[in-house]
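Q: Structure for this?
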Amino acid sequence: MAKQEDQFKKVISHAKEYGYIFQSSEIYDGLSAVYDYAQNGVELKKNIRDYWWKSMVQMHENIVGIDASILMHPTTWKASGHVDAFNDPLIDNKDSKKRYRADVLVEDYCAKIENKIEKEVKKAEKRFGEAFNKEEFKSTNGRVLGYQEKIDTILKRLGKSLENEDLVDVKALIEELEIADPLTGSKNWTEVKQFNLMFGTKLGASAESAMDLYLRPETAQGIFVNFLNVQKTGRMKIPFGIAQTGKAFRNEIVARQFIFRMREFEQMEMQFFVKPGTQKEWYEQWKETRLKWHLSLGMGADNYRFHDHEKLAHYADAAADIEFKFPFGFKELEGIHSRTDFDLKAHEEHSGKKIQYFDPEENKNYVPYVVETSIGLDRMFLAVFSNSLQEEELENGTTRTVLKLPAVLAPTKAAILPLVKKDGLPEIARKIVDDLKWSFNVSYDDKDAVGRRYRRQDAAGTPICITVDHDTIKDNTVTVRDRDTMEQKRVLISELKTIVSEKVDLQNWLK
Ligand code: ATP
């Protein structure tokens, strides 16, 4: 556990030191759970967004994008259920006066049991060596099965109580499990209460005429209210999807874990409209498609798993998370939800307008069903960043810090380094920059010895370094150094574009 915490601290400080993420309003001691993306962070974030957009929108003939407003008519949130049901169950500790999400306390308790399972697996792995079969061990070992059963029973009960809004039972569960305040160890809890997560604001100049609004807590509703506009103007035929990326706001209570849980964050969502009755198939298909997208980045299949929801939101008939192994354990990265016709029907009711699709094959009108994929851009950023940050022992006994970002996402694709700041080398390096910058984000760096520059670029996540030296003047060749293998090879300047492109071209990754 301590090791995990250390690793997470390293992630946070590295993100600051290398210009990825700053705390918001830091000169005023920051604002809790609000962050700013710095010069490198903004590039990484944009590249993740582009990677998603390319694969979800531009590669699908039947998916189009929109960019809806953050502010929406307040009835939207009545219809969507957010005014009445977008609540977190909260519990206070009477001694420490700290506030927690009751469901998170129980889930953290289960995560501890899960750690015990991991320990058993590691022990057995050591014992059996090569012959070890992890899946078989997990499905047959008595102790592991006991732990797993305990987790399943607890989560099932939590899910049921939350679904039935039985907050008394949630409290009872916390007491039965003897869950203590993680900070103080006190078990002196208040009742569990519901707390609405939407940020309120006002529209209008005078106090009397002002209208109460909310900052959107999800981007999805901007898509639902535009369903007919897009379907008609785009002549879209079911099944089709509408996608968007954009800010969402939630007044989160348990706002810790860096950019994992923020109050202002960005979502990348796609709502796929289908014929009623076919939602199950599409749900399975989108689960598979989205997992493939994650795996295409090469961050290790073992770092992902599905978690099917026991507790379904008020709008869903099936839901699963793609969980990722963050430095603090497996947690939700993306949700895939079968949202039924709940939202479109609710907007029909509240607006009094017919929101239906005429299906020419069936020759009838219906309200489509929706399967959505919803991923937090910031959470994806954290997944990529934390997984990429590595300390490596080198053959000469030293260590290096390297940020092994998937090259397609790296903020800077190549750094061009003149060996020395004289003899015409900077001029050649600048010329290479001027040539490559039309196609890639590249940088020029001539400070310090070249070895130190390599280390700096490794830590910043730049996949390629291109060094110009005295031989370059004679034969037009440069040294290309690979961030991950540290291999160096001599190539012609004229080959550089192809070499960089092969490494970072989106097509090579997504295919
Ligand atoms: P959680 O259970 O972690 O609160 P959620 O189930 O409420 O998340 P959804 O409403 O399904 O999340 O939102 C879809 C995605 O948006 C999540 O998978 C996550 O990646 C992202 N997300 C949700 N809340 C936040 C937040 N406060 N900060 C950053 N990302 C978030």
